[in-house]
């Protein structure tokens, strides 16, 4: 007799019991969550440590100071007098002048920041790793990372040059600079204060600082007020604490952008893991239809079934998240040791990541739980249908994804035509189009699987069975394929985007820097034999000498001294694209020079040299060097009849090792005081290095998503083995051997991986090109190029297929291990 009260089912207890009795069914889901959460935990922890290390480096410079005065005047004598007056203020223990300058390393295009060494040892915020501090105007100490980048060691000589002067210094020691992610972004060095009073010193920065240490009798705020009264309001006076906060807010934007990038990739990994969880629980629902039907038959309501699956997913999410947090913290500790950075664990961020992992697991089960709740008691007691997961969706639901694809393509089309909001249209349209493609995967993946399996069908019955199994349950196949498509597509999109950006940048850099390599003397002639030395460098195909001289041009508000070059017809052969010789009735000027000098393009310009003057129309042309002019040899002779050989133009072999070429160039140019190395190869190296690092980092991060997707392939095969136990037994009874059964599952995995990779590559190439086009347009790059690295793309495909086949090994062994009689006896 019933009391009318609803039956209470211990759903949480049932869920935990299900996990205990069938752990193999969900171990892949736990691994996916663990990888995703571990990745995110490591990301936020490593970035927190990097931020702390970066902030510590900023604080270190002023950690012992109380007040910092940033002098706005460039007069060294006035700065020294101000420091002396501040030192006499009551409450001040010391006031040290800290001078800062910047120049490029002769023989290269690297800029180095030169800081005067404080007299007060308390203000030396870094330690020597070898050598000694600079003792005179000819000494310099480099950061250890800076020394590695410049290939210098203690005892070597380095020449630092600006536009007006240069100084050749001896490296007397190295300081600890650290190996964090941002180490080396600024090339640091220290010189003796007397360096700035020497005759050959380079200019002083306008942001010269006076570092003030109090005697402890006043607070920082009160001491700053007294110092400001002496400074007279002309210079910036702030407490060291205030300066630290200002610098941190200004200089940590790169870290925040990098952290945002890491979190975006982590979200992709979680999304791929969510697709896998949905797929897994759909299969589990199909396998447990009888069990669910029995629960419904004895009084279980639909909400009981839903709560049971949600409780199971919650338990899986908790276990996977806890393991992921442990994995992420362990990885962060290793990174902290390797990079010599502070280990900082942002507790609230780690907790948030763990909660997100649990939430993803629970949300991913909503659709399977809804489907399980719809199972009728009598229907569930029947034999499980093979297409339980592959039911045909209603017409409205099937029409939605194609509509999203069309809408996304319309947005992308607007991005090609609208110049103001091109990037927003392209990104938004690509996102909508990608969602539509993922949602409609069930309409095009089965035909692709059928087409890929057609050649295999002719190889024998095993391949025919494998192809038929992938098509028999399209729901399971499409869910697995969608995860692979997303992971592979993102990797290929990044590769295509980076290659296209590099190709586009190369084309624009070739136009901006028509000469691959230039070696120019700012003053005076090049030594004899320099042209031959440059031509002898491996990777240089052509090198020609160019005559140069210093000339004066009239500009707004006065005149300006610039370098004029007169390349002959032979020098023009070194350009990246054929050009006729320079006409004698025009002056070519760097476009930025015209803009800075206020000279209108096409106007007449008067140029005065040692031998005479000419007045000719001026035209902006990237052939002219920065702050320079290019004229015909006849015009140069009129300006300076004895113009010496002052530059070398050289052409590099396509595909040459730019890093090695630069190293050889520096060997040639370093002994030449006042020589400047330039040209397009240097700019290309900087751009290629940045793009390659971004691509390597992004590919490494997205490899997490690929790994999760491949774990999903193995999980799908493993669950399908359990689902098809009776079918496998029947095949064995009909004569299928164990190795044939294993091979059948391997072919299934290969087809799923190959289909997902093919669609992912096609979609990734399209979206990568769209992204490159949009970003290139935003950067005002012209002649946008499409480029795709075939080896990299083939590598992604091969890795996906091989990993998919390897994922079938354990399920295949499990399927082949059972004997036909024992398997047929199972329910």
Automatic annotation (TrEMBL):
It comes from Nonomuraea fuscirosea. This is Putative ABC transport system permease protein. The keyword Transmembrane helix applies. InterPro entries: ABC3_permease_C, MacB_PCD, Macrolide_Exporter_MacB. Keywords: Cell membrane, Membrane, Transmembrane, Transmembrane helix. The keyword Transcription does not apply. One of its GO terms (cellular component) is plasma membrane. The lineage of its organism: Bacteria, Bacillati, Actinomycetota, Actinomycetes, Streptosporangiales. GO terms for molecular function: transmembrane transporter activity. It is a multi-pass membrane protein. Residues 264-373, 700-820 form the ABC3 transporter permease C-terminal domain. Residues 29-213 form the MacB-like periplasmic core domain. Belongs to the ABC-4 integral membrane protein family.
């Amino acid at each position: 007799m019933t009391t009318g009260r609803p039956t209470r089912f211990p759903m949480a207890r049932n869920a935990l019991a299900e996990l205990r009795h069938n752990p193999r069914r969900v171990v892949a889901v736990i691994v996916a969550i663990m990888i995703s959460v571990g990745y995110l935990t490591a990301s936020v922890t490593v970035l927190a440590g990097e931020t702390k290390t970066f902030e510590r480096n900023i604080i270190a410079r002023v950690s012992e100071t109380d007040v910092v005065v940033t002098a706005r005047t460039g007069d060294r004598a006035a700065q020294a007098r101000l420091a002396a007056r501040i030192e006499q203020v009551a409450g001040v223990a010391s006031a040290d002048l800290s001078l800062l300058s910047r120049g490029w390393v002769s023989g290269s295009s690297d800029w180095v920041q030169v800081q005067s060494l404080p007299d007060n040892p308390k203000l030396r915020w870094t330690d020597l790793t070898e050598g000694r501090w600079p003792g005179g105007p000819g000494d310099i100490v480099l950061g250890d990372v800076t020394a590695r980048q410049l290939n210098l060691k203690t005892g070597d000589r380095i020449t630092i040059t600006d536009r007006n002067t240069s100084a050749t210094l001896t490296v007397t020691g190295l300081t600890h600079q650290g190996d964090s992610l941002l180490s080396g972004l600024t090339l640091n060095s220290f010189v003796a204060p007397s360096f700035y009073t020497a005759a050959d010193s380079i200019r002083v920065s306008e942001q010269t600082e006076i570092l003030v240490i109090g005697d402890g009798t006043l607070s920082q705020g009160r001491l700053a007020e007294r110092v400001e009264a002496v400074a007279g309001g002309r210079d910036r006076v702030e407490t060291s604490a205030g300066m630290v906060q200002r610098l941190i807010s200004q200089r940590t934007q790169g870290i925040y952008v990098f952290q945002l990038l890491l979190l975006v990739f982590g979200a992709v990994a979680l999304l791929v893991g969510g697709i896998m969880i949905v797929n897994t629980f759909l299969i589990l629902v199909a396998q447990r239809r009888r069990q669910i039907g029995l629960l419904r038959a004895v009084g279980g309501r639909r909400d009981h079934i839903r709560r049971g699956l949600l409780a199971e997913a919650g338990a899986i999410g908790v276990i996977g998240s806890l393991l992921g947090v442990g994995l992420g913290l362990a990885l962060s500790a290793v990174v902290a040791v390797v990079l010599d950075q502070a280990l900082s664990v942002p507790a609230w961020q780690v907790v948030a990541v763990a909660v997100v992992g649990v939430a993803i697991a629970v949300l991913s089960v909503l659709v399977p739980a809804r489907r399980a709740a719809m199972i009728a008691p009598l229907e569930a007691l029947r034999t499980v249908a093979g297409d339980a997961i592959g039911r045909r969706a209603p017409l409205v639901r099937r029409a939605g994804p194609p509509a999203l694809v069309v809408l996304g393509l319309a947005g992308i089309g607007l991005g090609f035509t609208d110049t103001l909001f091109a990037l927003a249209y392209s990104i938004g349209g690509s996102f909508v189009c990608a969602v539509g493609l993922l949602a409609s995967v069930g309409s095009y993946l089965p035909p692709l699987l059928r087409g890929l399996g057609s050649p295999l069908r002719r190889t024998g019955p095993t391949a025919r069975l494998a192809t038929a199994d992938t098509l028999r349950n399209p729901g399971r196949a499409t869910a697995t394929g969608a995860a692979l498509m997303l992971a592979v597509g993102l990797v290929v999109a990044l590769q295509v985007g980076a290659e296209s950006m590099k190709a586009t940048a190369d084309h624009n850099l070739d136009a901006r820097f028509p000469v691959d390599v230039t070696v120019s003397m700012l003053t005076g002639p090049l030594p004899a034999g320099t042209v031959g030395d440059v031509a002898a460098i491996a990777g240089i195909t052509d090198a020609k000498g160019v005559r140069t001289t210093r000339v004066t041009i009239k500009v707004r508000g006065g005149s300006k001294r610039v370098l004029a070059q007169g390349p002959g017809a032979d020098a023009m052969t070194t350009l990246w694209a054929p050009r006729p010789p320079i006409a004698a009735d025009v002056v070519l000027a760097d476009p930025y020079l015209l803009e800075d000098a206020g000279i209108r393009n096409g106007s007449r310009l008067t140029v005065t040299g040692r031998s005479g003057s000419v007045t000719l129309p001026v035209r902006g042309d990237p052939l002219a060097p920065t702050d320079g002019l290019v004229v015909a040899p006849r015009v140069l002779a009129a300006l300076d009849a004895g113009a010496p050989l002052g530059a070398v133009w050289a052409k590099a072999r396509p595909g040459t090792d730019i890093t090695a070429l630069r190293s050889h160039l520096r060997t040639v140019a370093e002994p030449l005081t006042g020589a400047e190395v330039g040209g397009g190869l240097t700019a290309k190296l900087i751009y290629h290095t940045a793009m390659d690092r971004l691509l390597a980092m992004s590919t490494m991060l997205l490899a997490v998503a690929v790994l999760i997707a491949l774990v999903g392939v193995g999980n799908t095969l493993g669950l399908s083995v359990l689902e098809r136990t009776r079918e496998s037994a029947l095949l064995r009874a009909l004569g299928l051997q164990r190795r044939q059964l294993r091979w059948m599952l391997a072919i299934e995995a290969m087809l799923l991986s190959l289909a997902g990779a093919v669609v992912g590559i096609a979609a990734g190439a399209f979206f990568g090109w769209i992204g490159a086009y949009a970003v290139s347009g935003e950067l005002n790059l012209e002649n946008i190029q499409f480029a795709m690295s075939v080896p990299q793309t083939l590598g992604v495909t091969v890795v996906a297929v091989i990993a998919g086949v390897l994922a079938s090994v354990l399920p295949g062994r499990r399927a082949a291990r059972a004997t036909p009689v024992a398997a047929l006896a199972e329910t």
